[in-house]
């Protein structure tokens, strides 16, 4: 028994746990190059939201779920910051961009071929 994604691939097995979307093996025994190169395992959806906690009321746009290794994610974040004309950072695999740029970033990420959802309010 298991749960399947929209394309019919097995995502989770009750006997083996989380399954790799690339090779179909359990994540612990994954043999595909994507996971060996240091990408994170997620559900394949890039989420764009807004946060103000711990920033004295200043809002940042957060982008999580981009399945890229750390060096590539940092370069990709630089492209997104340039697109918005503002600063930001990458913290624990989450891209933070200063200000509220959710609409522009959702459109840009969709153009790049990612499956994108807005999270939060």
Describe this structure in words.
With 121 residues, the chain is α+β, with helices and mostly antiparallel strands. The protein folds into 2 domains: 2-36, no CATH class; 45-118, 2-Layer Sandwich (Translation Initiation Factor Eif1). Helix content is 24%, strand content 28%. The chain is built from 3 helices and 8 strands. The protein has helices spanning 33-36, 70-84, 102-111, and strands at 2-4, 10-13, 17-18, 45-51, 60-64, 88-91, 94-98, 115-118. The strands form 2 sheets. It has a 5-stranded mixed β-sheet with strand order 6-7-5-4-8, with helices on one face. A 3-stranded antiparallel β-sheet has the order 1-2-3, with no helix packed on it. The longest helix has 15 residues, at 70-84. The protein is elongated, with a radius of gyration of 16 Å. Residues 34-40 have low confidence and may be disordered.
Give a brief rundown of this model.
The chain is of the alpha+beta class and 121 residues long.
Q: Topology, pairings included?
A:
Elements (H helix, E strand, L loop, with lengths): L1 E3 L5 E4 L3 E2 L14 H4 L8 E7 L8 E5 L5 H15 L3 E4 L2 E5 L3 H10 L3 E4 L3
Parallel strand pairs: 4-8
Antiparallel strand pairs: 1-2, 2-3, 4-5, 5-7, 6-7
């Amino acid at each position: 028994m298991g749960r399947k994604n929209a394309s019919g691939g097995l995502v989770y097995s009750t006997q083996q746990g989380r399954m790799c979307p690339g090779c179909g093996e359990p994540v612990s025994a994954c043999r595909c190059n994507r996971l060996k190169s240091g990408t994170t395992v997620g559900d394949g959806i890039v989420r764009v939201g807004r946060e103000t906690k711990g920033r004295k009321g200043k809002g940042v746009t957060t982008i999580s779920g981009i399945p890229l290794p750390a060096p590539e994610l940092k370069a990709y974040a630089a492209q997104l910051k340039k697109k918005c004309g503002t600063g930001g950072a990458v913290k624990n695999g989450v891209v933070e961009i200063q200000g509220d740029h959710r609409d522009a970033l959702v459109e840009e990420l969709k153009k790049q071929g990612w499956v994108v959802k807005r999270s939060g309010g």
